């Protein structure tokens, strides 16, 4: 592959570029990033040695693969001025934007070879999770290429249909924030119970890490792992009873439904 262009050099682009370079999947001089922020461009150039541009057209002009990493609300505005160049070159396009459908991406870019991905921020550490779906025109070699690129940031899962990607956004795309919220709340409660901020933070973070690693590596499911912590008549039982009494599962369900619905709205807001 000769050149990869990133349109938008923010949080997720940085995470993916970091993964690609760390894994040796792509060399820095094959990566071109466009972003309006001068500071952002400088940071990317300094951290990774990639080529940066203020002008999107310059970034995509020689690219065989274009990764769209701007906010969903910007997508139409960003793609329409690039349409003539993109439709003439027909690069593989990978969009990581929440909500924006393959149909709209095709309409605005003039490209048929499209992959929609939903990564998440742990991609920064190589432990990301990405859901993926491709348009019908995408050839097997292009699917393999997209898969290899995203695997540089963690695991990939190919979805049965595009309809599933909003659910992936609600689960793993936004999901890190749910766990961070729980960690924040646990730290605050630890302090209320008399621990120092530092002790509470240290213990909450290590507990999150340990629980995540156990859940990922155990040969039993999370319900059984929870049961093993919960001594009959003990402390965990009281805490879980409190969570269930406050309908934690319904709260999680409502939150994920809201995230899923918002993904659809982000696409509809941009209209045709
Ligand atoms: N953050 C996350 O956890 C995840 C995000 N995503 C998706 O990734 C995409 C990017 O999100 P994220 O990285 O968080 O957002 P960021 O705001 O960090 O990155 C977007 C970047 O695009 C730049 N930008 C704005 N306008 C243009 C333009 N016209 N041309 C080129 N670049 C432009 C922004 O610059 P400036 O800031 O100056 O406007 C910014 O640096 C979104 O579509 C989001 O849905 C997907 C999965 C997870
Ligand atoms: O909040 C958002 O819209 C993006 C998509 C998934 C995570 N962050």
UniProtKB/TrEMBL annotation:
Compartments it resides in: Cytoplasm
Domain Pyrroline-5-carboxylate reductase dimerisation as annotated: residue spans: 162-266
The UniProt record lists the keyword Oxidoreductase: yes
Catalytic activity: L-proline + NADP(+) = (S)-1-pyrroline-5-carboxylate + NADPH + 2 H(+); L-proline + NAD(+) = (S)-1-pyrroline-5-carboxylate + NADH + 2 H(+)
Gene Ontology BP term (one): L-proline biosynthetic process
Gene3D superfamilies for the chain: NAD(P)-binding Rossmann-like Domain, ProC C-terminal domain-like
Chain ranges of the Pyrroline-5-carboxylate reductase catalytic N-terminal domain: 3-99
Principal location listed in the UniProt entry: cytoplasm
Pathway annotation: Amino-acid biosynthesis; L-proline biosynthesis; L-proline from L-glutamate 5-semialdehyde: step 1/1
Function noted in UniProt: Catalyzes the reduction of 1-pyrroline-5-carboxylate (PCA) to L-proline.
Identification of the protein by name: Pyrroline-5-carboxylate reductase
Organism: Parathalassolituus penaei
Taxonomic classification: Bacteria, Pseudomonadati, Pseudomonadota, Gammaproteobacteria, Oceanospirillales
